[in-house]
Amino acid sequence: MKIIVRVTTAFLALLSTAGFIAALSTVGLLTVLSAAAAADLPRKEPPPPAPPVGKAPIGKYPVGKYPVGKYPQPVVTKG
User: Fold this and answer.
1) Closest CA to 3 of 65, 48, 78, 11
2) In the prediction, which pLDDT does 22 show?
């Protein structure tokens, strides 16, 4: 009778260890899957910043249009 009790106890201990490992693995798997699913959810992004008002468009200011130190010659007409 003692051997049956010992075999049964060993079997249940093995079963409980395997069950614990299976439950722990299941919890870990569900945790990883839920984190991966949350990472795939779309997020609302902020709107782009508004353009500045009242400033000249970029590239339209006459910097570099004339050679350095020289200015356009005025048109002289004989009167």
Assistant:
1) 11
2) 83
Residue indicated by tokens 């200011």: 61
pLDDT digits (tens, 9 = 90+) for 46-66: 888 877 666 555 655 566 666
CB 66 within 8 A of CB 72: yes
Q: Which two tokens stand for residue 56?
A: 């000249």
CA dist., res. 36 & res. 46, Å (int): 23
- Residue 31 CB contacts under 8 Å (≥ 6 apart), including other chains: none
Q: Which two tokens stand for residue 31?
A: 């945790």
Tell which residue, 76, 50, 52, 72, has the closest CA to residue 62: 72
According to DSSP, residue 69 is labeled: T
